[in-house]
Specification:
Layout (H helix, E strand, L loop, with lengths): L1 E5 L6 E2 L5 H8 L6 E6 L1 H7 L8 E12 L6 E12 L3
Antiparallel strand pairs: 1-2, 1-5, 3-4, 4-5
């Protein structure tokens, strides 16, 4: 699975998820300090004019993270896009 961080593409990575349960927990994060809110998958595909191969899936999220250990606290908003092969 490719994980694209936007607008900071340096947060992008390639991940292997071996357990479907872990992948589900990775996608659903919702606390005061770390949120992922699903967004329409087609939006980024259309904006970047991506061609997604048959058997691949796209999931998009608005992201927010906060770290109070910094002074002032670190806050970051962005997008995260997961593009990968769907297991049969």
């Amino acid at each position: 699975m490719v994980i694209l961080g936007y607008p900071d593409l340096f947060q992008s990575e390639i991940c292997l998820f071996f357990k479907p349960e872990y992948f589900a927990s990775f996608c659903s994060r919702n606390s005061d300090d770390f949120k992922r809110v699903a967004r329409p998958d087609s939006e980024r595909v259309a904006r970047w004019n991506l061609s997604i191969p048959h058997g691949f899936e796209v999931r998009g999220f608005d992201t927010y993270q906060r770290d109070d250990s910094f002074d002032p606290p670190f806050e970051e908003w962005g997008e995260m896009w997961l593009i990968g092969e769907v297991a049969d």
